[in-house]
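Hello support,

Our group uses your service weekly, and this is the first time we've seen a run hang past the timeout. The protein is C2H2-type domain-containing protein. I'm not sure whether the cause is the sequence or the server load. Input pasted verbatim:
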Amino acid sequence: EEQEPVEVKEEPEQIRIKEEHDKDLEPEKRHQDNVDNPKVKQCKTDLFYCELCGKCFGQRRYLTAHKRTHTGEKPFSCRTCGKYFTSQSTLTAHGRTHTGEKPFQCLVCGKGFTQKTPLSYHMRTHSGEKPYSCETCNKSFRQNSDLACHLRTHTREKPYHCEVCEKYFRHSSEFARHKRAHTAEKPFSCQTCGICFNKQSKLTDHLKTHSGEKKSYPCGSCEKSFRRSSSMIRHRRIHTDEKPYICKVCGMSFRLGSHLTVHLKTHTGEKPCSCKLCDKSFSEHSSLGRHMRTHTSVKPYSCEQCGKSFKRCNDVARHMKTHTGEKPFQCPNCAKSFAQKTALSYHMRTHSGEKPYPCKLCGKSFRRSNDLVRHIKSHRGGNVNYVLNHSLSD
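Update from on-call engineer: The timeout came from a worker crash unrelated to the input. Re-ran successfully.
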């Protein structure tokens, strides 16, 4: 197994001397200088220097693997899930997410890690060591990569560029999360139930539903409890009908800020996310990601029991319940159970009488949006687009 790359805090003397001169050079010229000068590429201390970002590595192969983070090349693929990686070592570490293996264990608290380097960083949380300091503001950091990210707050540099929407990012992690908005990729999967997530933090929260970890934040109005106070606060708005996010254009209110952001685009008509394969545009990156699958017949997620294939990991998880008969979502009013959370939400409206989808032409209201769509076909000879446009203009 390959060792992890070792990042070194100290820059070689030659690089510091050249720094001011290099800042004034065009990127192409600076790159050529580094190629022509072996003393810059292989420093005094036998370190190998990346001319794009300044990182140093103990062996040339680590530099080669690192450069792929700039080019986007990922030649190593996982046989289990098909995900691609820039180096064999990161593929090996990723493989442990499937097996659950965490061979590197903290001797202080027992926490396990899939790689040795994260364990080294973790040990500093116990020792309090922060060996990497910023020369501008004297702030210290546990990891060299954290210092590199921090320095960009002074230089305002944003080296990560999205070619889909032209946005720039300061951190590679932010850029990686952003790219998933275009592809709708959800690489973090629960090994227990198969549900997939686009962020590690969301998977971590979900895993607590299986571990039975205590929910410390009770609602007070119903029997629900939550693991995070922010989740409880959002939930409480269902009972209080509080909608603190108000549209300044039409006065409509929303429980969540994200809902207001989506709504505002109905006024501006903004659809910044364009499909490069057809003329369609979308107001949200997630909508574009879902649309992109209509251009491909690839269905990478399959049911192990019946072989049926799906385009999304979440679709497999929902499908599996047809085999197990599992109905984990129970109504607190009548004890009826459902396989999907949305089905429970629709059912709850039979108790509350809520009908949030009104027809603007005749005033009739409906519990579900698809019921409204079916209904409005009875107006204007079934011209749904006419009725919807007419409703929006009222």
